[in-house]
Amino acid sequence: MRLNPLVSSQRLMLALATTMLAPAAAMAATAAPAANLRAQDVAVLAASCANCHGPDGRSTGGIPTLRGLPEQHLLQRLQAFKAGAAPDATVMTRLAKGYDDEQLKALAAWFSKKGK
Known about the structure:
- The structure is a single chain.
- By secondary structure, the chain is mainly α.
- The chain has a domain at 39-112: Cytochrome Bc1 Complex, Chain D, domain 2, CATH 1.10.760.10.
- Helices cover 61% and strands 0% of the residues.
- The chain has 6 helices and no strands.
- It has helices spanning 5-30, 39-47, 50-53, 71-83, 92-96, 101-114.
- The chain is elongated.
């Protein structure tokens, strides 16, 4: 029995689409809400901050140190960056938009406790 080339091509496209979308669907279904972030999850989020703010938020240059600052101060700054309300911000207004509110709270807590 010979298959119609159009049907074969449609089946191939469907199989490819299913294969490509399955990981995204699985991640969405199993993604934990930010409120349930484990310490290692927050550490992974905070690792991207090291590019500018230094390892563990301890800056070695002109970028502000985050480590050990009061949690409420850090959270207010992160929220201001996300809202675009920090006039002294540079790239942080764009970066903060990539985090949800619970992630910002977790990052503020993480950096404030690193100095203790």
